[in-house]
Amino acid sequence: MQDDTAGICCFPVSGEFKIGDVVRIKGYTDFYQAEMELQVQTIETIGEADPIEPAEAAAAQINDLSLLGSLVSISGTVVSFEKGNDLIQTILVKDEAGDVCRVFIDGYITTAQDVQNVENGAGITAVGLSSYDDTWKDEAYFPRIRVRDRADVVCEPVPEKETTHSSGSQNKTTNSFIDVKEGDYFFDAVEWAAAKGIIDSIENIDENLFVPDYIESRAEFVTFLWKAAGKPAAEGEMPFTDVAEDAPYYDAVLWAYTEGITAGTSETEFSPYRAVSRAMAVTLL
Fold it and tell me: Cα 29 vs. chain centroid, distance in angstroms?
């Protein structure tokens, strides 16, 4: 529920209630997964109002919890995503200020139709509740936007890359990626890395997009180093419980650990989805 000052999750609730109902709740404040909630003792409908319009939010406002509990809308660009049970579960969104926040969809939410056109580099607008969950695998993204309906997440398809034809085969036009152009200060470096296969087939990245402003994760950065080293084999036991054996970055992380490149963020955690700071990057290098 939400009033003129803020919003809060109320639990448990049973009865015939709909969006727009004005309710009076009596209860007591508590915490669930480190998020404030109202434990409901009684609830009654006392009126009806127009549904609340979501407030346009910046990623920084989601992350600093200044809008916690309120209905919000975030717009930006998809930088990474994950699925659970073959449905979109988590999307990291970068807004125009360059900040990244997490959009989360519970597995039971409107499962008949999944979110369409989710890919890195796609434009996205998502509506949901500014929320918090301290059980997530990466502390940097405990704050989140919790989606009520998958239809409230709209992605714009990434434009198809233009191609030229030579002897019946398709070739890239001027360079490896449509969003890297001659004159960009990183053009030569990207072309070199693409030619070496270092930045090819990074998880969830469209082969036509480099996404220069993409916020790199620790897993992706270590994978970059591993590919640059020639994908050397690594033996030994993985010490990090948050790196699954079937994860695409498993070999890279194990190699980096056995080579002494990384010790993780703790003795048992690598934090693969935490963003790489400049300090982390130079230390790993």
Answer: 30
The number of beta carbons lying within 10 Å of the beta carbon of residue 10 is 16
**Among 259, 38, 65, which residue's Cα sits nearest to residue 145?**
65
The CA dihedral of 129, 133, 137, 139, to the nearest 10 degrees, is 90
Q: 216 and 275 in contact (C-beta within 8 Å)?
A: yes
Convert the chain into a string of H (helix), E (strand) and C (coil): CECCCCECEEECCCCCCCCCEEEEEEEEEEEECCEEEEEEEEEEEEEECCCCCCEECCHHHHHCCCCCCCEEEEEEEEEEEEEECCEEEEEEEECCCCCEEEEECCCCCCCCCCCCCCCCCCEEEEEEEEEECCCCCCHHHCEEEECCCHHHEEEECCCCCCEEEECCEEEECCCCCCCCCECECCHHHHHHHHHCCCCCCCCCCCCCCCCCCCCCEHHHHHHHHHHHCCCCCCCCCCCCCCCCCCCCCHHHHHHHHHCCCCCCCCCCCCCCCCECCHHHHHHHC
Q: Measured between alpha carbons, how far is 44 from 21 in angstroms, rounded to an integer?
A: 10
Give the distance from CA 118 to its chain's centroid. 11
Q: What is the pLDDT of residues 224-255, one digit of tens each?
A: 899 888 899 888 999 999 999 988 899 999 99
For 170-219, what is each residue's pLDDT tens digit? 334 446 777 788 888 888 888 888 877 777 544 555 567 777 777 788 98
Q: Is the pTM of this model over 0.70?
A: no
